[in-house]
Every structure is written in structure tokens, then in C-alpha cells.
Write the C-alpha cells for this entry.
Amino acid sequence: MKTMIVDTASSAASVALFDHKTLIGEFLLNTPNTHSQKLMPLVESILEMLHLKIRDLDLIIACEGPGSFTGVRIGLSTVKAFAQPYNIPLITETSLTMLAAPFKYYNGIIVPIIDAKRGEVYFGEMEWQEGQFIKHREDVEALSELLERLMQSYPKKPILLVGDATEIYKEIIDSHMQNHPEMNVQLADENENIPKASHLGFLIGTDRAHLTYHDVKANYMRKSQAERDLNARRSNAF
């Protein structure tokens, strides 16, 4: 069983290929180039090096967001185009899960945080329990409010923050930790903040329902800034 996993929700783009549950190849580019420039060369290169074609795939897993609106659209449009002619089943999962999933042996709450601009973050509250990945919550919230709520919700558990927002809002996090030394917060290493397609490999062989290309939808969690500005202008007009 061959599975391809694609992620374009952040500035990084990555493609991974699995044979059953074994990772056999992964390409990642964490560069400013647009995903329209990066994604197809990555896909073509990894397939060529592994002597595979799209029709050989048994499953495609894609990151549905949140993150870059344009990046998410490019990634999902691409995998839908791959799946349609060969009726390849699809699974989608959030970019927050992708960031949290590799910390299988972390004994605490994993909180992926992605910059949503203006002091807000897309976040998740997740953990591994006896080999099972558990999602408690995913949403968008002001980082300062999130940190306060985490302190109240998980007073006795260590908390790991991972994602680009740990670097972008480091001053807010440091200030909160100084004011609340009783809170057991750890920050992931810089390279662990880069999402990788292979992190969703744990979904292979699970009972997750498969989708057709018709069913695949982006998960933006909120409207784009352009849409919010337009709605605000419309409201102000009345």
C-alpha cells in the first residue's frame, strides 16, 4: 500500500511517501518561494526517485489547514486533481495535528500554535494516551488568553508549545512564564516548529473515514483578513 502525504499550509512545503507504515521518502522546502513553484517539483521528484506514478498510490493524505490561505488552496487543489482520475481515496487532517503528532512520548499536553496575526494564534490542545492521539480542542484565540486558560485547564500537567508562534510571540510567552513560574511550560526546538508531511503518517491504517475528491474542504478556522475587512466595510456602510 503506497500513501502520499502533502502539506502546503505554512511557508514550508513537504511531500512524504509511505509503503504501508514505513516512510520511504520525504522532500521538504522551507523557503520563501510560492507553493505554486515548490509543490509540483517536489511531487515529481520524489515519485521519479521512487519509480512510482500517481496511479500507483492507494491513499493520499493532505493537510487541510489552518495556515496560509493560498497555500492550503494550492495543496488541496493539487491532491484533488491527483485523486480524481484514479479514484484515489483521501484523508485530510489539520496542520495543528501535524505539529503535535511527532511528540508521541511527551507526557503532557501538546499545544501547537500557529500565527493567525494580530496577537492571535490557531491552537490545539492534544496528547498521546497509550498510543492513541487525543484531540481536546482546536480553535483560534488571543495568545495571552490561551496561556491563561491553559494554566487553569491543566494545572498539574506539563505543557509543550510548538509551532511558528513560539518564535513570533516569544516575548508574550516569556512574560507569561516569568509571571507564572508555577506553570510547567516547555518550548519545542526551532526545527520542531517546521511542519513535515511525514508527521501525519500515523493516520495510515487507522479507521479514519476516507473521502472522495468531492468531499475535501479547507479548514481555515476563520475568514481571511480580506474577507473580514470587506465585511467590516459593508457593516460600516449601513
